[in-house]
Structures are given as C-alpha cells and as structure tokens.
Amino acid sequence: ISPNSVDVMKRRFSNHNQLTSLVADMESLPFDNESFDVVCSAGSLSYGDNDKVMNEVFRILNREGVFIVVDSLNHNPIYKINRYINYLRGKRSRSVLKMMPTTILIGQYEKKFGDIEVEYFGTISWLCPFLSIFLNESKIMKFSNYIDSLFNIRKSAFKFTMIAFKKM
Length: 168
Fold this sequence. Notes:
Layout lengths: L2 H10 L23 E7 L7 H11 E12 L4 H12 L5 H6 L3 H11 E8 L6 H4 L5 H14 L8 E8 L2
Parallel strand pairs: 1-2
Antiparallel strand pairs: 2-4, 3-4
C-alpha cells in the first residue's frame, strides 16, 4: 500500500520489463484469476485480513504458482511485548497485533496450497543490540544461526520464510 515502496522497487528493477508493480489492496487484488507465476510478500501479512489475503493470492496464482513470504511471527513473548509497547506508543495498530502471522496461519496456507516449505529463524534477535557491544555483525549472525540450529525454534522464532506451492 506504499506508493514510495513501489517507486523504489520500480527504480531498482527498471531493467526487468516483465516486472509488474503497483499499489493495490491485498484483500481485493485487481488482477485476473491465475494471472501470476509468483507472488511475493515481505513483512505485509499482518496488514490484511488473513483469510482474504490467502484467498486472493491463491486466486491470482497460476496452476503450479508459488507464493514466497518473509514475515514476523507472533509467538515469542519478548517480541509480543515489544509490539504491544509500540502499539501503546502509537507505532502499531491494534489490527496489526491481531493479524500477525502465527504457526496456525502457516498451517492454513499448507491446507490451502497443498505444499509449503517453511524456515524459522531469529530466536535471539532481541539480543543483537547487546551483542553488538562485543561482537561484529558477522559473528552475531553466525551465533544467532547456531542458536537457531540447536533447537526446534518454531514457537520462539522472530521471523519465518515460507514458499507455498499451489497444487491443483
């Protein structure tokens, strides 16, 4: 919904004449059924009604189309508290808090699409500002990835990536 973001993307990928970019309502996309091979979403799932967005993406994807997502999860208590504080400060809306993706929503995408691949990461992202006192960015990233690899981090992850494959 950000015209500025769309302008930045158009400039950055100006040499790709097959790229379509425009400002649109993700709950009611202005595209024909089965008109895209790939749909991408970066940090925007919490800005629309989850069912409407999922159905719209499914509708506009071609058979065998792919939905690629990177977004934040709403499970880790530290992140939930941070988001709530930002809500109290007026930096987040109540609807965003309610619509934040969860593992339940990811399961709904799996049901709808038939096949998904999901990766969870960023369990200790909240520690990064403190760790930056002692470690450089590269070492922090390696440490964070190491911690993520030690545990089943579904419930404590900060971010996730999902690739949903439309199966007909």
